[in-house]
Amino acid sequence: MAGCGRVRRAAAAAVLGGAALLGAGCGGSKPATAAQPSAPTTAASASAPTTSALASATATQAPAAPASGLATGSKRRALAARYLAIARTGNRGLDHSLDPLEDRDKSRLGPARADLRYATGVEHTFDRRLLQIPFPPATEQVARTLYRVNQARASLTNAASHSATVGQLHVYERRLDDANEPVEAAVRTIRRQLGLPPPPSS
Question: Residue 65 to residues 17, 84, 200: CA-CA distances in angstroms?
Fold first, then answer.
C-alpha cells in the first residue's frame, strides 16, 4: 500500500509535535504522493469531516501568544513536563499502531483498519489528557484549539478505518495530509509557550 507513509509521521506531529497524524489509512514514515483523491463512497465517508469543514472549524487554529497569561519559571517547567509526558505516551501508542502499516499490514485491509482504529483511540486519549492539564489562559486557548483540530483529524482517521478496500484507504491520504497542518501549527505554538524547542522536522 504505497503512499501510506505519512500516517505515522503525521500522528507524531499531533502529539509530540513532529509530524502529524496523517494516517491516510496506510502507513510508513515517508511522505507519499497520491493521485488527487475523490471523496470515498462508503457510508463512513459520508460522516467524515471534509477539508473545508476542518478549515472552517479551525479558523483560529493557532492563536499567537499574548504578552500575558503565560506560565513562567517553575510552573512553566512543570506544565511542560506534563505535556511531554502525555505526548510521549501518545507517540508510543501511535508507533505501536502505525508501524505495522508501513510493513506487514500495508496491503492487508483488515489489519490496516484495526491499526487505524487503535490510532484513533490513542489520539482521543491524548486529547482528553491534554484538557486535564491546568494551563494558564493563553496556553489553555491554544490547547483547546489543538484539541479541536486533533479531534477533527481523528474523525478522518476513524472514517479511513472503515474503508471497504485498500484503494479507498488511499483516498483519505490528501484529506488527512491537509488536516495535519492546523495540528502542527497548534503544537508549535503550545511548545513555544511552554518553553520547549520546536518539534523535530521529518
Answer: 17, 19, 21
